[in-house]
């Protein structure tokens, strides 16, 4: 059968098929929106003007392309927004690990395979299915890899609402999911946004260790532990180091505290299964990994991109915050002469936090 652009009434059928295909490809939900993000653009510009993006220069360098999809991908008239759950069923409960200072806490999205790879492949397959129906289809797929306002698009497409912690929330599945998008040139029917249901709750704001959520819906990334452990390449400011606790890659506190995550669904994706017991592993054990071990064990992982030096920097801080023990001091002393000045400085700080026996 020759491909053809659907007539106006047939776009409804195509949109329905897209949702079916999305579920078949492992997405839990799909929504469609237009490309008008003018209200979100004003908020983005204000956020950048305040410098809340810190050293994430990529947040500003693309200008309005982030908030104007058709500027980023000419011809775009619709965006398909999709979400996929990631919390692995077997992962140890987050607050339990956070309560044991000698253990390492790693953000639950990073326990398995790199989500960029997983989602990009599924999004490409979905785009191929659309192209199989409509030869004139043109578009691009994204997942946290380009100047795209993912949460604003997902909010506008009806996938959920933007919570006070700035993440997307849903009543039936909480927030433990990844987002991905397809920018396309077909005028599909759009979905209506859903109402917000945070109400007067401020649990996410109260629990943030560094008080990075400075107001509802406003995050100062420079204070955020995810930024400090992942995006920041230099020294971690000393005033934040004690507040990191045992968090060595990312932070989930605002999600762990959110009441809506009582309804979160576990992932069914084998790719997001836990690797190397990262949901419950000792800091000293991870600190002992050399660069070859780091490279081998984090191949295909989101953690790989921070590199071994930054990995050691983060763990050194966590060891400084850990309960005092000979094991902790021995681990830190093993890196006192590390070639990296960044690592050495954080090790020295950590040792100063550990009383000698």
From TrEMBL:
Signal peptide residues on this chain, from the entry's feature table: none
Predominant location category: cytoplasm
Catalytic center residues: 144
Keyword tags: 4Fe-4S, Cobalamin, Cobalt, Cytoplasm, Iron, Iron-sulfur, Metal-binding, Oxidoreductase, Queuosine biosynthesis, tRNA processing
InterPro entries listed in its UniProt record: 4Fe4S_Fe-S-bd (IPR017896), 4Fe4S_Fe_S_CS (IPR017900), QueG (IPR004453), QueG_DUF1730 (IPR013542)
Superkingdom classification of source: Bacteria
GO biological process, one term: tRNA queuosine(34) biosynthetic process
Listed Gene3D superfamilies: 3.30.70.20
Gene Ontology MF terms: 4 iron, 4 sulfur cluster binding; cobalamin binding; epoxyqueuosine reductase activity; metal ion binding
EC number: 1.17.99.6
Annotated catalysed reactions: epoxyqueuosine(34) in tRNA + AH2 = queuosine(34) in tRNA + A + H2O
Entry cofactors: [4Fe-4S] cluster; cob(II)alamin
Residues annotated as transmembrane: none
UniProt remark on cofactor binding: Binds 2 [4Fe-4S] clusters per monomer.
Segments forming a coiled coil: none
Binding-site residues for [4Fe-4S] cluster 1, renumbered to this chain: 198, 201, 204, 258
Pathway: tRNA modification; tRNA-queuosine biosynthesis
GO cellular component terms, A-Z: cytoplasm
Enzyme class, UniProt record, top EC level: oxidoreductase
Record-listed [4Fe-4S] cluster 2 binding positions: 208, 224, 251, 254
Domain 4Fe-4S ferredoxin-type: 186-218
Family, per entry: Belongs to the QueG family.
Role according to the record: Catalyzes the conversion of epoxyqueuosine (oQ) to queuosine (Q), which is a hypermodified base found in the wobble positions of tRNA(Asp), tRNA(Asn), tRNA(His) and tRNA(Tyr).
Subunit: Monomer.
Protein name: Epoxyqueuosine reductase
Underlying gene: queG
């Amino acid at each position: 059968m020759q491909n053809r652009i659907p007539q106006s009434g047939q776009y409804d059928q195509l949109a329905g098929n897209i949702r079916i295909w999305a579920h078949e490809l492992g997405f839990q939900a799909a929504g469609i929106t237009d490309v008008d993000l003018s209200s979100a653009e004003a908020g983005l510009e204000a956020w950048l003007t305040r410098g809340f993006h810190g050293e994430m220069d990529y947040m500003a360098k693309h200008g309005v392309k982030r908030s104007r999809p058709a500027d980023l991908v000419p011809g775009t008239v619709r965006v398909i927004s999709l979400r996929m759950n990631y919390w692995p069923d077997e992962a140890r409960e987050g607050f339990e690990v956070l309560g044991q200072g000698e253990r390492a806490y790693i953000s639950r999205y990073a326990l398995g395979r790199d989500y960029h790879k997983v989602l990009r492949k599924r999004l490409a397959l979905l785009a191929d299915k659309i192209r199989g129906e409509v030869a004139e289809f043109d578009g691009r797929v994204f997942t946290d890899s380009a100047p795209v306002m993912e949460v604003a698009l997902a909010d506008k497409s009806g996938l959920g609402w933007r919570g006070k912690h700035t993440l997307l929330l849903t009543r039936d599945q909480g927030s433990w999911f990844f987002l991905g998008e397809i920018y396309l040139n077909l005028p599909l029917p759009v979905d209506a946004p859903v109402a917000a249901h945070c109400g007067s709750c401020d649990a996410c704001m109260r629990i943030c260790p560094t008080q990075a959520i400075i107001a509802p819906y406003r995050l100062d990334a420079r204070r955020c532990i995810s930024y400090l452990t992942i995006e920041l390449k230099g020294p971690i400011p000393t005033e934040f180091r004690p507040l990191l606790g045992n968090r060595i890659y990312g932070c989930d506190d605002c999600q762990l505290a959110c009441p809506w995550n009582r309804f979160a669904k576990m992932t069914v994706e084998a790719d997001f299964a836990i690797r190397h017991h990262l949901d419950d592993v000792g800091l000293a054990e991870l600190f002992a990994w050399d660069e070859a071990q780091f490279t081998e064990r984090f191949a295909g992982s989101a953690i790989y991109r921070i590199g071994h030096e930054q990995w050691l920097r983060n763990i050194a801080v966590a060891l400084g915050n850990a309960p005092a023990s000979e094991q902790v001091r021995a681990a830190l002393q093993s890196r006192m002469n590390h070639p990296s000045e960044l690592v050495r400085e954080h090790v020295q700080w950590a040792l100063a936090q550990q009383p000698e026996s």
